[in-house]
Amino acid sequence: MYLRVFHISMVICVLFYGHDVFANVFGPRENPEKYPDYGGTPDLVLSGDVGLSDQELSELLDRLSSNDLQVRIEAATQIKKNAAGCEAVFRRALWKVGFVRHTEVKAVLKKASAGSEEGNAGAVVSGLIQMDPSDSAVALAAKVTVMLVALHSLDTMAGYKVMLDFSGRHAGAFRAFIGDLLVRTGLKVLPALIYGRGSSDEELHMFSVAWIRDMGNPLLSEQIQGIRNSRRLAQLLEAYASVNELDAIDVTLSCANHESAFVRNAARAALKVYGKNAKWSIHREYENNFEDEPADSTDYDEWAEALFQLWDEQREQKTQQLFADGLAAAKTGNYSKMDAAFRKLLAKVPLFANRAQMAEGYLKYAAFLETEGKHGDAVKVNRMAKRLADEGDAAYSTAGARLEWLSAESNRESGGLDVKGYRKLASHPATRDAAKKWASYGAEGSSDSGIPWWKVIAVSLLIFASAILILVRVKIS
To answer: End-to-end alpha-carbon separation of the chain, Å?
Structure first.
């Protein structure tokens, strides 16, 4: 069984292949090539428990040589669908693939891409899968391209590194295929290409430079503005520092006050790597912020620390102001304003120290939405309250109970009354009064309709007597 059923939890971790694991590391590493993801800011990835094992991938790759086309298509689909967290597995499998004359491999790749748009990797893979799998060049090319496409779909630095490292194998037969995949990805792949540009492997260096050129040699300002993912932007700064790109110093310094902690920490670590090369940029920034020159007895590293402290204090003031604005809005019942302030705060500081205090405001907001009949919105807001509250707090328990209540009400209105659920909710202070009506439904002393038993009997006797009278009258007439 290839698709494992696990509870999928998103975790912040660094993928590893027998190397040291660096948690919460920011900044360029020495000898980045020895790290599976270059060793900088980690991508947000799925747990390694999710995906394919070496054995499972091997079995799926074998199926790519099946005589049944549908089996080959299904195998390729499963490989891509279950690729998350499998960079190390793919690396091992790629390096195990046997060798065929690279001229033969290039020939089948060319044939598979015939008639399709240039650089359309999907069309190439589809073409290979439909070719005769008994041909050793076809079989090898199909396995490799399916794995490369799966790696590319992950959009992780570890995945891109495997692709770059593999690009020179088989006499570069797959280099054009890999290049097309990377170039068409756009700016997201740029940090990996910059690391490739700085590689000690001359061929990888040369082709990384060529691929960046094929992307249009985007200006640094375009790169900074075009990369939206904060982790990837942090990785870009780290990559430039690793190759000592002096033209990136001013941009890196400006990012040292970025809203994202990932970018901020990576930029500050990168400035330390630039060292004295960043001295005059830091000096100028110091003058702009403090309106005075730094003391003669100090040096650039002290100027940088003074700048970082100033920026952190200013950011903390803005954060506290947003927090105060949100609390004030909640107090006056202006919940839309409260929500806007809190969400802006959490976007800046996801793990804000006083986030549990926001939960009370969201509980009030949810209650208001319920009174307005907006139950769907109330569910979303209760979920927000539960995420913000500390587990074990009254707010956490209340939010959970209200979510259960809204779910029970939705089910009841759809014809699925859950009496046991209502009885459970009747014991919680936040749902006791609302749940009592349905908690006693069907209990001893009550009918299934919730009407007292004596009323049911009285109505039944009345209906029975009416029926007898009607029959008598019919016979008389």
So the answer is: 77
**In a structure prediction context, what are the per-residue pLDDT tens digits for the chain, which is 477 residues long?**
333 333 333 333 333 333 333 345 678 988 999 999 999 999 986 555 567 999 999 999 999 999 999 999 999 999 999 999 999 999 999 999 998 999 999 999 999 988 677 668 888 999 999 999 999 999 999 999 999 999 999 999 999 999 999 999 999 999 999 999 999 999 999 999 999 999 999 999 999 999 999 999 999 999 999 999 999 999 999 999 999 999 999 999 999 999 888 999 999 999 999 999 999 999 999 999 999 999 989 999 999 999 999 999 999 999 999 999 999 999 999 999 999 999 999 888 888 888 889 999 999 998 899 888 898 898 899 899 999 988 888 888 788 777 776 776 665 555 555 555 555 555 555 454 454 444 445 444 344 444 454 454 565 666 766 766 666 565 555
Is residue 124 within 8 Å of residue 156, measured between CB atoms?
no
Distance, in Å, from the CA atom of 309 to the CA atom of 303, rounded to the nearest integer, reads: 10
Burial of 455 (0-12, 13-18, 19+ CB in 10 A): exposed
44-46 and 10-12 as β-strands: parallel, antiparallel, unpaired? antiparallel
Q: Which amino acid is at 424?
A: K
Q: Which residues contact 192 (CB under 8 A, 6 or more apart)?
A: 38, 157, 160, 161, 164, 182, 239
Residues 6 or more apart whose CB falls under 8 angstroms from that of 12 comprise 42, 44
Amino acid at 124: V
Q: Which two tokens stand for residue 206?
A: 């040369």
State the Cα–Cα distance between residues 471 and 207, nearest whole angstrom. Answer: 99
CB of 205 closer than 8 Å to CB of 199: yes
For the beta carbon of residue 259, count every other beta carbon within 10 angstroms. 12
**Helix/strand/coil percentages in the chain, nearest 5:** 70, 0, 30
Close Cβ partners of 109 (under 8 Å, ≥ 6 residues apart): 124, 128, 141, 145, 173, 174, 176, 177
For tokens 């009345």, what's the residue?
462
* Distances 257 to 129, 268, 285, 294, 348 between C-alpha atoms, Å: 50, 9, 12, 19, 12
Q: How many CB atoms lie within 10 A of CB 223?
A: 19
Nearest residue to 42 (alpha-carbon basis) of 161, 133, 193: 161
Task: Give the dihedral of Cα atoms 308, 312, 313, 314; nearest 10 deg.
Answer: 100
CA distance 54 to 147: 13
Q: What angle do CA 96, 101, 102 make, to 5 degrees?
A: 85
- Both structure tokens of 369: 């939405």
Structure tokens at 421: 């659920």
The Cα–Cα gap between 225 and 228 comes to: 7
**Whole-number Å distance between alpha carbons of 8 and 118:** 37
